[in-house]
Amino acid sequence: MDKSINVLIVDDYRTMLRIIRNLLKQLEFENVEEATDGREALAKLRAGNFGLVISDWNMQPMTGLDLLKEVRADPRLKATPFIMVTAESKTENVIAAKQAGVSNYIVKPFNAETLREKIEKVLAHA
């Protein structure tokens, strides 16, 4: 697993950004950038070179699902591994995310071990 990749974490809740950043640091990921909504994330993705996106689902004005759809529709970004983080474990949400091309899905709360497993899975297929 390449821990030098650039990771973009997206959440409109600053505390959650800090939690995910700390978990990634425990997993020895150093190149972590943050965005507080889908629009900001999309601009950063288009301007940068990210090897992984970890995004919350519930955000305004652009949701994580909308961000995922934009990423998958962009020829330069469509292969970027994308992990959706949500408090919702509803089946229809999981199905919607899968149909939109999500790489993996994490339900809050989660720990470093769960995050590591999900990251390893999506990077193995990248």
Structure explained in plain terms:
There is one protein chain. With 126 residues, the chain is an alpha/beta fold. Helix content is 44%, strand content 17%. The chain contains five helices and five strands, in the order βαβαβαβαβα. The chain has helices at residues 14-26, 38-47, 64-73, 91-100, 112-124, and strands spanning 7-10, 32-35, 52-56, 82-86, 104-107. The protein has a five-stranded parallel sheet with strand order 2-1-3-4-5, with helices on both faces. The longest helix has 13 residues, at 14-26. The mean pLDDT is 95.
Topology summary:
Blueprint: E1 7-10, H1 14-26, E2 32-35, H2 38-47, E3 52-56, H3 64-73, E4 82-86, H4 91-100, E5 104-107, H5 112-124
Parallel strand pairs: 1-2, 1-3, 3-4, 4-5
Helix pairs in contact: 2-3
Organism: Caldovatus aquaticus
Protein name: Chemotaxis response regulator CheY
InterPro entries: Bact_response_regulator (IPR050595), CheY-like_superfamily (IPR011006), Sig_transdc_resp-reg_receiver (IPR001789)
